[in-house]
Amino acid sequence: MKVIKTIQGLRRELQALWQKGERIGFVPTMGYFHQGHVSLMARSVRENDITVVSLFVNPVQFGPTEDLSRYPRDLRRDCAMAKAAGVAVIFIPSVKEMYPQELSTWVSVNALSEGLCGASRPGHFKGVATVVAKLLNIVQPDTMYLGAKDAQQAMVIKKMVCDLNFPARVVVCPTVRERDGLAMSSRNMYLKPDERIAAKALSGALFAAKKDILSGERNALKIISKIKKLILEETGASIEYVSCVSATDLKPVRRIKADVLIALAVRFPSARLIDNQLVILR
User: Fold this and answer.
1) Are residues 40 and 147 in the same domain?
2) Which of 34-73 are b and which e, b meaning 16 or more Cβ less than 10 Å from the residue's Cβ?
3) Pick the catalytic residue: 27, 37, 166, 173?
4) Residues lower than pLDDT 70 in the chain
5) What pLDDT was estimated at residue 65?
């Protein structure tokens, strides 16, 4: 596996592959890998001639009071995990390499970015869309792989790729969970032991809500109320939001008539966690 730290170096490495028409798979990450990341890499390796992984903690998607400085990092461990997964190239640029001067050009995806996490993290998705657009231009992959845990982020990126005519196909892969149901996340390492035990209630509440909807419940407010009750009873954490939104445009729904995404964000003293469940009605 090659470790490349410059845009010029990566383009030089990929030039021959582009010319040969080899299929390039791409997994954008912020590092501190877990099995969720590895599953994306493994799928890319299966489906492409070469897989490129980017590892970049993107400062422009963090708010002024968020965890940029303490975001977990372990480059040696990450490189070992990527190599074991069959990744051919890992791209680890510096902030100066990605942003050599102050940005005057940004990518904003309206509407999809405004609710859920976008409501409490202003500017977050503008930072995400901008860096992913840059990475797509640098790597020029055939297919990009994203995780379903970050459902809103995935929808924002898919819309950007469509609107701006990027040639890459976007594949959203299932959320990978711990044995007790907790969605894998780099931020889980922040949790104290008692918080980690309590955190399984998030997925438990979502699974119960999905079961209720599939059993016939159509009142979104009742679904949301039940989720909040279960989380508060079992965790004592602060609920940022619990929402039932359209699976196509992320607009809140009151009466469930079509496919919906149940999404939540919860703040423990040590970490902010998100999770979701997609409910497909047949």
Assistant:
1) yes
2) eebbbbbbbbbbeebebbbbbbbbbebbbeeeeeeeebee
3) 37
4) none
5) 87
pLDDT tens for residues 26-41?
999 999 999 999 999 9
Report DSSP letters for 144-200, one per residue: EEEEGGGHHHHHHHHHHHHHTT---EEEEEPPPB-TTSPBP-GGGGG--HHHHHHHH
CATH of the domain at 202: 3.30.1300.10
Query: Residue 102: what pLDDT?
Result: 93
0.85 cut: is pTM over it?
yes
Side chain identity at 199, as an amino acid letter?
A
**R_g (Cα) of the chain, nearest Å:** 19
Instruction: Quote the CA–CA distance of 12 and 244 in Å, as a whole number.
Output: 46
The total domain count for the chain is 2
**pLDDT score recorded for residue 14:** 97
Structure tokens that stand for 53 in this block = 């992984």
Q: Are residues 149 and 236 in the same domain?
A: no
For the chain, report the end-to-end CA distance as a whole number of angstroms: 44
* Domain match, 147 and 211 both: no
Measured distance CA(67)–CA(80) in Å, rounded: 25
Indicate if 34 belongs to the active site: no
pLDDT value for 282: 77
Residues 60 and 119 in one domain: yes
